[in-house]
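Reviewer 2 asked us to include a model.

Predict the structure of this chain.
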Amino acid sequence: MDQSNNLPLKPNETLSSTTRVGHPKALPVLFLTEMWERFSYYGMRALLVLYAVKFLHFTDREAGQLYGAYTGLVYLTPIFGGWIADRYLGFRHSIIIGAILMGIGHLLLACDGLGFFFAGLSFLIIGNGFFKPNMSSLVGRLYEDRTNLKDSGYTIFYMGINLGGFFGPILCGYLGEAIGWHYGFGAAGIGMGVGLLIFLLGQKLIPDSMGRRPLANNLFQTKIISNQLTQVEISRIKVILVLTFFSIFFWSAFEQAGSSMNLFADRFVDRTVLNFTIPASVFQSVNPVFILLLAPLFAKLWTVLGKKSLEPDSAFKFSIGLFLLSFGFVCLVLGAREYNQYGIASLHWLILAYLFNTLGELCLSPVGLSMVSSMSPPRLGGLLMGMWFLSNAIAHYAGGVFSGIANEIGMDTFFGVFVVLAMIAGIILLVLRPKLSQWSEKS
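Predicted model (structure tokens):
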């Protein structure tokens, strides 16, 4: 793990080096690096199920299993990547290694052949494990001396994620569907290369002591067990684990965007606008558009409420996120029923679903990253960030596999399942909120 708390700073180096608006000068570097990495990820993801069904001739069930296995493993390996960074490599080296591996993976996907396809997916899975938890943890380290700006900072960082998520499906999706699948995958690889270059060139803006070294002692040698953690740390870890568990319900529904919602848009939605038929993969840019429009408002909202001591706690934000997600899937149920009645679904149902899902995402995802970073014991920061992504792995795998039966049980019934699950999870979390607040505030 990074030892920035224990290393002396150089005379001209402070953790308080900020931009004019109070955020660290290094934030734009991490913003742009993450933006290009997400360009590559979401560009490739927009094509994956469509490529499997249309080019590799997988069935819907097989494509759903492939999507679930891939996205699940992408979010499983960060727990190991976070641990390796904590113990051996440090955040920076892990990020660089991950970016290189992912670049190779995208370029392998650009090659023809099933062997190249699965090899490319393997490189992407391993590379994500090194990159994802350590980039998020490094952002948190920038805010160690300005915790009042952390939620706002993570929301700005989240804008970078979604800026890449906006352009990736448009460019890679268009190249893949209109020109050739492998051109789309190749464009994703180029984007990853740009992100790596930005990170390498921008490291001088990151405080020199930050993220370079792992924890000096072997975690097993130091025997970090429960009785060596303080009661405050144990209570806060409980909060992290409970909220991480409830995030599974959110992500298993939200990630239908790349599978069942993608196929729903391709097969059942009227995608013609001004006599132009929009490729189905391009609609995965709708969510990032809403993020880019709404994230600044949320960042401002949390900052203003925080100054007035009115900002809701993480559990309340998570509950609201689950309720909004449920409303989004109500829109998909209505769209599916319209298709059943008229043989085509209106585009506005899909857009409304993405809008409500995005509002829910902004209440949960950047808040979750900030929560894990803020409440984790410093020596377990990378590991617990990996646990956060482990919940994503479970959700992605379950949601991907479940998506394979959507057409078999009917799209309206399928989407209705997520309406109910998200609503129930949100209600239970509200009931648990007083206990979570007690754990959070325990000192």
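The longest strand covers residues 272-273. The longest helix spans residues 411-441. We have added this to the supplementary material.
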